[in-house]
């Protein structure tokens, strides 16, 4: 198996974590919505995207998804990066990726149900799907 896929996956997870950090910062008013390091298509409307957090689709265990996501995605990136060094069994990040797919389907369903087109949210879910797919076919 090509170990490059794990490094690519780790990089994508770090990008997703940075996006979660951004979302969380905008939600708490610590970061302005318009940032040079966030692609324009992913920049948040300060009200529309953050309104999701106050719904049942915006929190897991009472904590905003973006807050958990930034820690989760950082840990996920470390897990992925550990595979080429034989520190982590390849099935572990694959299993974690499968869980992100199921959770992502639920959260995207929530976005559709709430009629809230949050591009940063969708981007993070797509990144998670890509990470899972490259592991599954790699």
From TrEMBL:
Membrane topology: Multi-pass membrane protein
Residue spans crossing the bilayer: 6-28, 91-112, 119-137
GO molecular function, one term: oxidoreductase activity
Subcellular location(s) per record: Membrane
All residue ranges annotated as the Vitamin K epoxide reductase domain in the record: 10-135
GO cellular component labels: membrane
Keyword Transmembrane helix: yes
Keywords of the record: Disulfide bond, Membrane, Oxidoreductase, Quinone, Redox-active center, Transmembrane, Transmembrane helix
Keyword Membrane: yes
InterPro entries referenced in this protein's UniProt entry, alphabetically: VKOR (IPR012932), VKOR_sf (IPR038354)
Primary localization class, coarse: membrane
Gene3D superfamilies attached to this UniProt entry: VKOR domain
Family affiliation: Belongs to the VKOR family.
Protein name: Vitamin K epoxide reductase domain-containing protein
């Amino acid at each position: 198996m090509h170990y490059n896929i794990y490094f690519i996956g780790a990089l994508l997870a770090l990008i997703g974590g940075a996006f979660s950090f951004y979302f969380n910062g905008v939600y708490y008013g610590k970061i302005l919505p318009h940032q040079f390091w966030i692609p324009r298509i992913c920049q948040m409307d300060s009200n529309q995207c953050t309104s999701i957090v106050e719904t049942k689709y915006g929190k897991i265990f009472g904590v905003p998804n973006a807050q958990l996501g930034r820690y989760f995605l950082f840990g996920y990136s470390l897990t992925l990066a550990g595979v080429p060094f034989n520190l982590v069994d390849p099935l572990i990040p694959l299993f974690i990726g499968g869980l992100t797919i199921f959770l992502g389907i639920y959260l995207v369903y929530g976005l559709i149900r709430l009629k809230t087109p949050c591009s940063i949210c969708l981007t993070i879910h797509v990144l998670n799907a890509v990470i899972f797919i490259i592991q599954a076919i790699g």
